[in-house]
Design brief:
The chain is mostly helical. The chain contains six helices and two strands, in the order H-E-E-H-H-H-H-H. The protein has a two-stranded antiparallel ribbon with strand order 1-2. The longest helix is centred in the N-terminal third of the chain and has 28 residues, at 32-59.
């Protein structure tokens, strides 16, 4: 590949990265309907990972290595989660699709973002703990995630189902 073609490809890739991401936040998060769909999918993904981790702990299905991979996926999702909550995408703001995102998210976005960051941090810790294979330590870290991140966020920022 000659230098001109390679330079053009590199420039095109850089331009795409600039257009597609704004400080690491996906562009689609600016569209409420798309953002709601993406955040619901992300939350279902996190829930699926947590369920699989629970099955490992309770029934021994899977492996500690699987837990580590799932924890890494949770962390990656948590890092971009706030971008799925653009302004005017709460339950009192849109009717299609339905959402349970409470207006408190936008009233205290700093707290919401800090809980998402904490989820990423605690999921990273779970990935590290899982690599030891110690089920008791894995269970303890899962408890921390459930109480201090998922439960704390849903308790404050998730509206009641209608």
């Amino acid at each position: 590949m000659n230098k001109v073609v390679r330079g053009t490809l590199v420039a095109a890739a850089a331009l795409f990265a600039i257009i597609a991401f704004d400080a690491g936040k996906p562009v689609f998060a600016q569209d409420a309907k798309t953002a709601i769909s993406m955040r619901q999918s992300a939350m279902k993904g996190i829930g699926g990972h947590m369920k699989a981790i629970s099955v490992f702990l309770k029934e021994g299905m899977g492996s500690a290595e699987d837990v580590a991979k799932r924890a890494a996926e949770i962390s990656a999702t948590a890092k971009i989660l706030p971008s799925y909550f653009p302004a005017k995408s709460g339950m009192d703001m849109v009717t299609d699709p339905k959402t349970r995102a409470d207006a408190m998210i936008w009233a205290d976005m700093a707290k919401f973002e800090s809980l998402a960051a904490l989820l990423a941090t605690e999921a990273d810790k779970l990935a590290t703990v899982a690599k030891t294979g110690d089920k008791a330590a894995i269970q303890a870290q899962v408890g921390v995630i459930g109480k201090n991140t998922c439960g704390a966020c849903h308790g404050t920022f998730r509206g009641k189902s209608s």
